[in-house]
Amino acid sequence: MSDVISLENLTVSYRRHPALHHVNGAFARGSLTAVVGPNGAGKSTLLKTMLGLVRCNGGRVVTHVDAHRIAYLPQQAEIDRSFPIKVLDCVLLGYWQAKGNWGGIDAKMAERARRALAAVGLDGFAGRPVSSLSVGQFQRVLFARILLQDAEVILLDEPFNAIDARTTGDLLRIISAWHAERRTVIAVLHDHDQVRRAFPQTLLLARNVVAWGDTADVMCEDNLLRARAMAEAVDEHADICEVSESEVLALSRLHDDHAGHAHAHPHQGHHHGAGEKGGLQ
Ligand SMILES: Nc1ncnc2c1ncn2[C@@H]1O[C@H](COP(=O)(O)OP(=O)(O)OP(=O)(O)O)[C@@H](O)[C@H]1O
User: Which residue ranges are recorded for the region named Disordered (predicted)?
Assistant: First the structure.
């Protein structure tokens, strides 16, 4: 199976504090991967770096897909929805990324947007202002928008945060359908049971890759304990490539066990790396 996004020795820092540290590995085309790890493990940073929204300090991201074929769902907390926009127009923004302009929305596109709304259970919501929606309804709108984007790669940052069980179930079915259509889906998640049930692949992060591979292998108690220990060992004042003694200990234990989980590959494709800034600002 070919890779769609590769991470090569990726290091990302905020004000010289590393959030991702020498991360290596690749997402296979058509894979369905959960990204898990403790708070502050670098999960959101990883998605933003893959999009080119955050700059790499070392290494690079290589994407074998056009930037406009990557859809991104940020955490709801990062979205301002006080903007006076109707549900249908919000869904139609899905075309904007694909088509690159605001013009040319025809009746066929509007009809597709209405069908996408129906598919996420929001028939009849087209004319509602987005500010009037519940958190769960708004998340359905954002999924409808992705449906319209026809993306090859879909990045979801905590899509079920503060979402009830019924809505989560509906949205998980949409994710499964994307997977069945051979799209690549990468989702940051915190619910380990949900990851075990619905995500075949898992990347366990704690600034470094703790484990990456089949979910059943990655989500074992031992790895989860290591991730927690590594997160607790992080020295918030460490400089870009400095590793604290406790991290060295945790890393040396990891090294032998997980060399085989992440797989870096030679490749061709677009990349953004240290010293560059991606185009999706
Ligand atoms: N814009 C920023 N400026 C400075 N530091 C940041 C910024 N964004 C993230 N960080 C820091 O980088 C580290 C990783 O943050 P990130 O949001 O990627 O973690 P996460 O794994 O997604 O966490 P959570 O599970 O809590 O959402 C944290 O220590 C965080 O405080």
Answer: 259-281
